[in-house]
Amino acid sequence: MEQMSIRGLPFEASRIALGTWAIGGWMWGGADETDAIVTIHRALDLGINLVDTAPVYGFGQSEEIVGRALEGRRNDVLIATKVGLDWSEGRPRRNSAPERLRQELDDSLRRLRTDVIDIYQVHWPDEATAFEVTAETLDAFRREGKIRAIGVSNFDIAQMDRFRKIAPIATIQPPYNLFERGAENDVLPYAKTHGIVALTYGALCRGLLSGKIAADTTFEGDDLRKFDPKFQPGRREQYLDAVAKLDALAREKFGKSVLALAVRWILDQGDTIALWGARRPAQLDPVPDISGWHIDAATKKEIDRILAETIADPVGPEFMAPPRTATS
Q: Smallest Cα–Cα separation from 318: which of 227, 244, 218, 186?
């Protein structure tokens, strides 16, 4: 397993991290706790030592499961969680008021059964609270020894600039995959310039790049893919066409699947870590296929050609953003 350093952490992080949104069940049609714990253990056995979660994933459920799964193995694992989403009024909304952040920190430490969080990330920028105040609050947590490193998620470069004047940013978490590449325009170059590690999410684009989704695949319960624009008629066919062509390319050039190509492509972009979401252990079986090879420049150009040729109506991940808090 490839590893890299993140400022403030006691040891290097694996460049594949386990994402646990689906483990929490919310917006993924439910989840099984026993499967979830086995999945986390399987990830650790495969060399993954960074687990990413958030309070809002299952409204505490994901953090609870991660905490239980890591009992006895905590010292060998880096935990990244998040802060700044308030679901007390129903649908999650952004809230980075200092008192809310303090309460969330205490709750996360309790659920995760730990006395320190390795990477504490502001989940979404909250314009109702000055970014300088948010940064000062998280830096106080760092000085208290309750967190080791500060991260931000879904921030743009202007917001990071303001934040960094008060507190150091170790990681930025943007959406990034073969189909959602907006971060290349600004966030990723900014991160490289300032020594910030990109802990990218959505590596398989909600499963589209797994190669397992078909035109007639249906989603149950509150699964977010029921309203994801990429999965709707018209667009879904375009994206699946791209997946089929990328899969053929990956098998011809490297003897790999489209899933392996998608994750390897992220890792080959530079100082990046790919979040791999899973809720069943079998979903991690392809992890060993990612290491030991790279995508050459000619193949990267061919990938770009395939995407331009097949996706006539591209759309980003904006539908996932929670409501902004009104400023006054």
A: 227
pLDDT at 28 over 50: no
Q: Considering the chain, what percentage of its residues have pLDDT values greater than 70?
A: 96
Where along the chain do its domains lie?
A: 3-207+263-291
With a cut of 90, say whether residue 100 has pLDDT above it.
yes
- Alpha carbons 239 and 243: distance in angstroms, whole number: 6
Q: Token pair 């009104």 is at which residue?
A: 326
Q: Give which of 137, 131, 18 is closest to 73, Cα–Cα.
A: 18
- What are the residues facing 275 on neighbouring strands? 17
pLDDT in tens, 231-241: 888 888 999 99
Q: Residue 239 catalytic?
A: no
Helix ranges restricted to H, 119-234: 131-143, 157-164, 187-193
List the beta bridge partners of residue 83: 122
State if pTM tops 0.70.
Answer: yes
CATH topology for 3-207+263-291? TIM Barrel (3.20.20)
Identify the CA nearest to 280 among candidates 110, 29, 109, 64. 29
- The catalytic position among 57, 190, 201, 239 is 57
Do 293 and 264 contact (CB within 8 A), yes or no?
yes
Sign of the dihedral through C-alpha 83, 91, 21, 237: negative
